[in-house]
Design brief:
Blueprint: E1 16-17, E2 20-21, H1 34-39, E3 46-48, E4 51-53, E5 59-62, H2 65-68, H3 77-89, H4 101-113, E6 118-124, H5 127-144, E7 152-156, H6 165-170, H7 174-177, E8 187-190, H8 196-199, H9 215-223, E9 228-233, H10 249-260, E10 263-267, H11 281-285, E11 291-294, E12 306-311, H12 312-318, H13 338-354, H14 356-372, E13 380-386, E14 389-394, H15 403-414, E15 417-418, E16 420-422, E17 425-428, H16 436-450
Parallel strand pairs: 5-15, 7-8, 7-9, 9-10, 10-11
Antiparallel strand pairs: 1-2, 3-4, 4-5, 6-12, 11-12, 13-14, 14-17, 16-17
Helix pairs in contact: 3-13, 4-13, 14-16
Length: about 450
């Protein structure tokens, strides 16, 4: 059903553009070992379906959906057409005290997909901005209802919530925090749930660790519930290396938040839009948060966009006072950008046409079986999976953490498979159009490469 063009010519040695050799000096790259990259660039020039192509015409299987975002595969016709038609019709519309029709049309369709009760949508431009927005909503909500002392935010160790100061403050990845000095005040962190001793090589939800949710009670005792605005967690922690919640963990976290009047925020920037075989992870786990962030798959990665889903009861608390006054003084120049809304509408239509928001459930058994074929591979100390996301954790090289996985990443790319690494963890999250042959290619390539790395 999803066919790709044939690979073209073999690679050449020099990085090229349409106009000739590339000058790599000016671009300061994000989250990149820049000196290493510029000594041996990995360039992508074209994409279609399940594949990228390099400028030289070498085909590369995309085993990570771009960056966890291209859920429907690359260059899907309805999305491409929607963007082009919108750009021609209207390129930009201001979003402050003005709007355009597609922003309302999209919001209606998004809340129809969301878990019941999350019936309001606030648009942002990225997952990082969605997190900032949700944190501000939580604090402002408590203030609006007369509990302005509730300003404390609780994140979790090893959590990733984007790169703005609010996000890295509630986030718990040390490498993202230590470079930038003091974070926001009034933030604390739950323990993470990753327990290799008890849960290594688990298939699906780990059996052990639900009791770790009780760590929130410790924090409540330390700070007093009346000071805490919200708890934010990823249902499945993605960027830190696919940490899957133990059975019963999220349910217990929801119950503790309810007990103490604390808002629960799910960061679904990665897990949203079909990654677990359900529209959202909240559906998969049967746990509905008070606020939910989304991005990435909302537009299939084609145009930057993020969103916060909110319970109607939270929204309604703000709708007080004189009608001419801005109720929530927050937003972005590009909130509900016409091209982003058009891209999202085309994306939702593509998901619906092909049943992609639930296709992950069909492919998950094959994906799980293939992943766990690596359980006995060299250097592997854990393999874990849920839906169409998985991780292979490698033993670190002494005094060189991250090097082994990075060597696997580079060699896999040379052999025609794009993977993602974080520390010494290989993460896989293929587009939802993935077929068994693609899974087999990705896993067999990783297996072969693991035999070659030191």
């Amino acid at each position: 059903m999803h066919k790709d063009p044939n690979p073209a010519a073999a690679p050449t040695s020099a990085p090229l553009s349409a106009s000739g050799p590339l000058d790599l000096d000016a671009f300061w790259m994000p989250f990149t070992a820049s000196r290493q990259f510029k000594s041996a660039p990995r360039l992508l020039a074209k994409a279609k379906g399940m594949h990228y192509w390099t400028p030289e015409g070498r085909q590369v299987l995309d085993a990570v959906a771009g960056l966890w975002c291209v859920n429907a595969g690359h260059a899907r016709p309805k999305i491409v057409r929607a963007i082009a038609e919108q750009a021609e019709e209207m390129d930009f519309a201001p979003g402050f005290n003005m709007a355009h029709p597609k922003s309302f049309e999209l919001a209606t369709k998004l809340v129809a997909l969301a878990p019941k009760g999350l019936d309001k949508v606030f648009y942002t431009n990225s997952g990082s901005e969605a997190v900032e927005t949700a944190l501000k909503m939580a604090i402002a909500y408590h203030r609006a209802r007369g509990e302005g002392q509730r300003t404390r935010l609780i994140g979790r160790e090893r959590g990733y919530h984007g790169v703005n100061f609010g996000g890295i403050s509630v986030g718990g990845i040390a490498g993202n925090r230590k470079t930038f000095g003091p974070m926001l005040g009034g933030v604390d962190h739950l323990r993470h749930t990753h327990d290799l001793k008890k849960n290594a090589f688990a298939r699906g939800l780990p059996a052990h660790g639900a009791e770790l949710a009780e760590d929130l009670e410790r924090i409540v005792t330390l700070h007093d519930a009346s000071t805490i605005a919200a708890v934010i967690v990823e249902p499945v922690a993605g960027s830190t290396g696919v940490l899957i919640p133990p059975k019963g963990y999220l349910e217990r976290l929801r119950a503790i938040c309810d007990k103490h009047g604390i808002l629960l925020i799910f960061d679904e920037v990665i897990t949203g839009f079909g990654r677990l075989g359900t529209p959202f992870a909240a559906d998969y786990f049967g746990v509905t948060p008070d606020l939910m962030t989304a991005a990435k798959g909302i537009t299939n990665g084609c145009v930057p966009m993020g969103a916060v889903f909110a319970k109607g009861a939270i929204h309604d608390v703000f709708m007080q006072g004189p009608e001419h006054v801005v109720e929530f003084p927050h937003g972005y120049t590009y909130s509900a950008h016409p091209l982003a809304c058009a891209a999202s509408l085309g994306t939702l239509e593509t998901y619906a046409d092909e049943g992609l928001l639930t296709r992950g459930a069909k492919m998950a058994p094959s994906f799980e079986h293939a992943l766990h074929s690596l359980d006995e591979s060299p250097h592997v100390i854990d393999v874990r999976n849920i839906g169409l996301v998985g991780a292979i954790e490698l033993e670190s090289v002494a005094e060189a953490p991250g090097k082994r996985a990075f060597d696997v990443f580079r060699t896999c790319f040379e052999r025609g498979v794009l993977i993602r690494t974080t520390g010494d963890i290989i993460a896989l999250s293929p587009p939802l159009i993935v077929e068994d042959a693609h899974i087999d290619q990705a896993i067999s390539t990783i297996a072969d490469v693991l035999k070659t790395v030191a």
